[in-house]
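Hi there, hope your week has been kind to you so far. Please have a think about how the structure follows from the sequence. I've dropped the whole record in just underneath, so have a look:

_____
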Amino acid sequence: MNSASAAYPIGTPGIPWGDAERAQWLSRQTRQRSYESDVLSVIERLRSRFDVHEYGCLEYGPDVYPLMAIRSRNWRADRPVVLITGGVHGYETSGVHGALQFVEQHALDYAGRVNLLVAPCVSPWAYERIHRWNANAIDPNRSFRDDGQAGESAALMQLVASIAEPILLHIDLHETTDTDETEFRPALAARDGKPFEPGDIPDGFYLVDDTENPQPEFQQAVIEAVEKITHIAPADDKGEIIGSPAVARGVIQYPLAQLGLCTSMTNARYRTTTEVYPDSGRVTTEQCNAAQVAAVCAAIDYALSVG
């Protein structure tokens, strides 16, 4: 496959999508699961132990999605802030459920030591449709910049900007799936009028550090914790993971701010993006969620121990 048309059924080779192509793409998207049942119901039962509030609202046609955040009760100015985000890409399921599972099972372990702020499902429209983009065919995880066009990203940036206390840690929970190669990258190439260049999906868990502010010891602490739950992605024959050089076992680096990625929106010393591989025959759904939880706990423990 060497062209967008060969890889994806919408669009003309070499020509970026216009309104008609975006409308055609949107018409193909169907609701496959419920944000209300899967996410909002879980958040609702957490109200007895945490502060919960709506930080924005998305409207896509007849569909309305409240954007919800979970905060530590008894928030204090003299405690560092830990930011946990999931579901920036709605189809990356363990990011959403891993964030919620962490809150349910472990958040109170850190009471009195940190202020926790958790946005477990940043992109609810995409969560329901098991998609990477929002309804406007925009990737929220390339929109964390002042001129970003995704409402999901803008709302989260406003929430984070309202936090006065210093943010020590931001961990953003993601997955790399086989459908990245069969659906989402071909769609991206078609949307942008570019050739589709096939790649490989890493077999295992890995992390994305910041090229401009690398924290190798922090990243390895997370890798070592997750390795107890699931396997770590090896580098390929080129020494790369998903086309980027592996700077350490299970770790690559991206220029976060340049790409407009979620973890670029704070000046936190410790920042990482998890990438779980749910399509492996070696893992279960429960292990994928547990890997996200282990990553969060290890990240917080390291940040608190080192400062």
Summary: DSSP finds ten helices and ten strands in the chain. The longest helix spans residues 285-306.
